[in-house]
Amino acid sequence: MTDTIVSKPRATYAATVAATSLGFVVVQLDVSIVNLALNRIGAALSMGIGGLQWVVDAYTLAFASLLLAGGALGDRIGARRVFVGGMALFSIASLVCGLAGSPWVLIAARAVQGAGAALLMPCSLALLNRAYASDKARRARAVGLWTAAGGVALSAGPVLGGFMVGSLGWASIFLVNLPIGALAIWMAYQFLRETPLKAEKPPIDWAGQGLVVLTLFSLTGAFIETGSSGWASLPVIGGLAVAAVAGSLFLLVESRTKAPMFPLKLFASRVPAATSLVGLAVNLTLYGTIFMLSLYFQQERHFSPEMTGLAFLPFMAAVTVSNIAAGRIAATYGPRLPMAIGLLIGAAGFGLMALIQADTSYLSLLWRLLFLPVGIGLAVPAMTTALLSSVPTAMSGTASGVLNTVRQSGGAIGVALFGSALALGTIQGMQLAFLASALAVAFSALCAFLFIRDADHSAG
């Protein structure tokens, strides 16, 4: 008896891919779609920049800090069971978000959404991997479709969000998850088979899990608070102190536990360390930029939500095209070239963005902005290829999970820092944030050039 369904008809293949992809779609959609609603949410719930930062970051932080635990839980009790539970939790939290009448209810529900996303996303890929374990060609195509579905959702989020907010109100961007979630749960029971449970169940790293949550929330909260209270205020100093202590304890626990959620030995090798640094820099600057520009277009340029969504359309289209080209370039030349060149293009784009003024037109802003998706779109697929080519196959899941955790954490920190920079004034804050981003991305390009080798690619 086998759990594989490779011999099933083509319709079942499509249904299996669709069922698992829906999990990735809702996760990616909620990463990007909420930015277009921030201006309306702020007006409806009387929220300032700090509150809006938490609307974005509560989701991202919960997702980042629980992502590795979600995969481990799926290994222990079954990926389908965790996938369905995560989707149900995500859907219920989405309903609460849509009905929220106060800032803290919305922020708390967003955190629960992030927890649901952390449960369902790694398990969706585990289910897909299991379904076609005996057919590598079909599995590769299925994973490609799964990845493409998430990319389309991420790219379509701002455009879809703009039209939904403008036509149906801000609550609609959360309520749309309900029919998607219901369909995903039904399809999971119809078309997905449970993964076999491991005979040996490693202990869950509860201490590490708790400490990483405390570290990330304290650090991000301190950065958000700087916008209104300043760096010398007690909440900021206290938050940074808690983050420093919790972070130090986390490193100590992870170095001593037998089954760490965040294996530090990965960072003893230069490629995982370099790719994690690149991932941190990319997400920090990119998420911060999208957050900042969403508010800039609506508050300073007085664009409608629909116009703001369309303003982001060339940006998102360029990411998609660049990602496709990056795969071919990395396959031919190895990951080092597209990583280093892409990051340098991104750094140049941030440098050009730092020169904007209050009277800069949209078209003048756009040609500068397009440097970012072109460069980063080249770098990110090569970054993932470099990482997976540098670790043993048995460690690939853990390595990719660590990279995704670092990247999502960077995105949350980026929203916190960029939002706080707006306290200096919109244009001045944008100039400072983009200049700092140019330096950070240029430094990551240097690290990619020095520590990534094409031999690492060929050795995998």
Q: What is the CATH C level class of the largest domain, in words?
A: Mainly Alpha
CATH topology of the largest domain: Growth Hormone, Chain: A
Task: Note the total helix count.
Answer: 18
Helix content: over 70%
Principal-axes shape call: globular
Number of domains: 3
What's the name of the CATH homologous superfamily of the largest domain? MFS general substrate transporter like domains
How much of the sequence lies in strands comes to under 5%
Explain this structure to me?
- This protein is mainly α and 460 residues long.
- The protein folds into 3 domains: 7-196, Up-down Bundle (Growth Hormone, Chain: A); 205-260; 263-460, MFS general substrate transporter like domains (Growth Hormone, Chain: A, Up-down Bundle).
- It has 18 helices and no strands.
- The protein has helices spanning 10-32, 38-45, 49-77, 79-99, 103-131, 136-168, 172-175, 177-191, 206-229, 234-256, 270-300, 305-333, 336-353, 362-369, 371-390, 396-421, 426-451, 454-459.
- The longest helix is centred in the N-terminal third of the chain and has 33 residues, at 136-168.
- The two termini are 33 Å apart.
- Mean pLDDT is 86; it is low at 1-9 and 455-460.
